[in-house]
Amino acid sequence: MTDSDALPDIRLELVEDLSPPDDGGFLRLVRRRFRARYPDGSLSEPFVYDAVDRRAIDAVVIAAHYVSRSELWVYLRSAVRPPLSLRDPSRSPVPERDRGTGLWELPAGLVEVDEQTPDGLRACASRELAEELGFDQPPDLMRELGPSTYPAPGIIGERHFYFEVEVDPKSRAEPSHDGSPLEHGGLVRSVRLADALALCAQGAIEDAKSELGLRRLADRFA
Q1: 220 membership: H or E segment, kind and range
Q2: Domain co-membership, 21 together with 71
Q3: Does 2 reside within a domain?
Q4: With contact defined as beta carbons under 8 Å apart, do 63 and 106 qualify?
Q5: pLDDT per residue over 53-99, tens digit each?
Q6: Burial of residue 119, with CB atoms counted within 10 A of its CB: 0-12 exposed, 13-18 middle, 19 or more buried
Q7: 0.90 exceeded by the pTM?
Q8: Domain that holds residue 197
Q9: How far apart are alpha carbons 62 and 195 in whole angstroms?
Q10: Pair 104, 76: CB distance under 8 Å
């Protein structure tokens, strides 16, 4: 991109913080009144914008892979996502898939406050790999898989940091999990990367971060 493609310099000025008290939940509602200041110096009328925040704001996404019969395989795990149970099928513009409350995803997890450094991100990826898949791999083997992304910037300022790591299927143990009831009973599956991408195209893998990680992995080993 060139200077002519730069984003417009529109700044937000805080007028008033209307956020309700923090009740200690997983997410915190942030409600603020802003004004937008435009490049010509003019100001918008004040407006209210709602967002959510979280103590551990960012997450890692891990593509754990291995080669078998000259083909690249990758690990997926099932993930229970409660918001899917809250989705009203009558409001959907297309028929809903009968997926229950789960999705197939690349393993992922939140970056804790003491992991908010480049080295901490690798440590987080290593920890999540053991918790969600059952592989014990040191942080220095975690390789960055492209730049971070914002999965839902209209709602939360969360960033996803992508990693890939080669694993030995014979070394996999039972995942240690993090104690969450949502991880209990989860399934781990290895699939050919080509098949995983086909499942994305068919809509059987619906998680956006996972499709992006899978496509980046395919590009890296193309």
Answers
A1: helix 208-220
A2: no
A3: no
A4: yes
A5: 999 999 999 999 999 999 999 999 999 998 888 888 889 998 887 77
A6: exposed
A7: yes
A8: 59-220
A9: 18
A10: yes
